[in-house]
Every structure is written in C-alpha cells, then in structure tokens.
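FORM 12-B: Structure-to-Sequence Request
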C-alpha cells in the first residue's frame, strides 16, 4: 500500500504504512496514538528544527518508526509501549552540523519490547549527541540498543543513554551495544552506555567500543588490489549498511546508500 502522509497534530494510527515529510514544516510537534492489535510503520524524512514526537502504543501491537535525517536537528522522542507490544526504531543520521537526540521510551506493559538501531556519520565539524534511554516498568520487558557511528575529521560524536530496570520488573532483559569507528586523531568520539538495575531477577549487559579502523582489515583489502581510500570506504559502508533494514522503500534505500558513499 502507498504511504499515507501525516501532518502536525495528534494522529491515531491503524494498521498501515505512513510517511511524515517535514520539508515544509520547520518545527514539528507530533503525537501518535496506536490502539490494540495494530501493525504500523512510520517513516520520517526531511525533519528540520526542533522536533517533538510523543507516542502511546497500546497492547498486542507492532510498530516500526524509521528516521532518515539529513538536516541539523534537535529531536525529543518520548512514549510508552503497552502489554505484548513491540517497538522497533531505525535512525539513519547523515545530517551536517549540530544534531541532538533525546529519547525516553517507557516499557509499561507486561512483555513489552523495544529495539533501537542507530547509524550516524559525523564528519568535518559536525557535533552530534545521541541519548537513548529505555525504562523497564513491568515484568518480562526487553530492550536492545544498537548504536553504530563513524567519526571523521574534527567532528564530535557522542552515544549515551540509560537502560533502567525498575524494582519489580522481574525477568526483564536489557542489552546495549555502542560502537564508533574513528578515522582521524582530531575526531572526538565517546560511547558511554549506562545500566541502572533495581531488581535482581534480570539479564543485562552493555558494550562500548571506540577505535580506529582495523589495520588487519586495511591490509587484507589493500592486498586484494584496493587503494587505502577504497578500503576505508568499503569498511565504513559495511559498518553502516545494516540501517537499510529499517527502510522497505527502495528509493530510500538507494538514497541512504548514496549518503554513506558520499560521506566516506
């Protein structure tokens, strides 16, 4: 089915594919209500300025939010996920300049789940901060955070956020994975995932890696006839390419691929 355009205001979403194009709206205040037993996909493109997105996902519902960002932004993303519901987010960041994202995702229902996937490319003098926080407020809730970034030139890239399992959220699971590949010594790359655990009967882990491109990988690729520049481009493309999984539209996939290629 073709995408349905959304506008600023409260949107009650039913099972469908939706598109929000912010090219004509500098600042957006969006509210989404998604009732029981729905299957919803929303793609956000061309957002500009100060963006507030609030959502309420009810029960037995599956939701996918996908973002393709190419403009400087200040995004506030906040909401709740109900019982037996699943929220999957894909955030593809290829903006130039200042970018800040703050999330506050609350798993309020039994067996509520959220998976967050971010790919960010920072270059030149970009300054980017991504704070992704998920709160477990019921039993058997599950959260996965996967942040991948590339920092070049004199850019700054920060990944932070909290997985907080509150008291009483028995059998919940929280996993964070933050990795940044650094191209240049002048780049400032920081990954600091935080776990806050107030219950004993849980499963939680986090990993943070910040480092340069592997010399072994470069050597292998250059030994196959690639130049060092080509090798770096290929490694970076493979590092960020998984974000394409969040976009079913082929034109958007092609646009993201081109943005990665131009960025490296």
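FORM 12-B RESPONSE
SEQUENCE OUT:
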């Amino acid at each position: 089915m073709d995408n349905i355009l959304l506008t600023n205001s409260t949107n009650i979403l039913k099972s469908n594919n939706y598109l929000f194009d912010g090219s004509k709206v500098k600042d957006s205040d969006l509210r989404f209500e998604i009732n029981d037993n729905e299957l919803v996909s929303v793609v956000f493109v061309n957002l500009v300025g100060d963006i507030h997105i609030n959502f309420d996902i009810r029960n037995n519902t599956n939701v996918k939010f996908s973002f393709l960002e190419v403009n400087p932004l200040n995004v506030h993303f906040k909401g709740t996920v109900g019982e037996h519901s699943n929220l999957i987010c894909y955030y593809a960041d290829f903006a130039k300049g200042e970018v800040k994202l703050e999330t506050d995702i609350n798993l309020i229902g039994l067996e509520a789940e959220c998976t967050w996937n971010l790919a960010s490319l920072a270059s030149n003098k970009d300054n980017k901060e991504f704070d992704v926080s998920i709160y477990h407020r019921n039993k058997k809730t599950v959260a996965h955070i996967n942040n991948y970034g590339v920092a070049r030139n004199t850019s700054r890239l920060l990944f932070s956020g909290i997985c907080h399992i509150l008291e009483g959220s028995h059998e919940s699971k929280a996993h964070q994975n933050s990795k940044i590949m650094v191209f240049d010594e002048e780049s400032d790359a920081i990954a600091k995932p935080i776990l806050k655990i107030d219950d004993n009967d849980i499963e939680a882990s986090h990993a943070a890696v910040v480092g340069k491109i592997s010399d072994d990988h470069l050597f292998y690729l250059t030994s196959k006839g690639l130049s060092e520049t080509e090798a770096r481009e290929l490694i970076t493309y493979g590092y960020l390419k998984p974000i394409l999984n969040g976009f079913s539209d082929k034109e958007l996939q092609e646009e993201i691929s081109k943005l990665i290629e131009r960025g490296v």
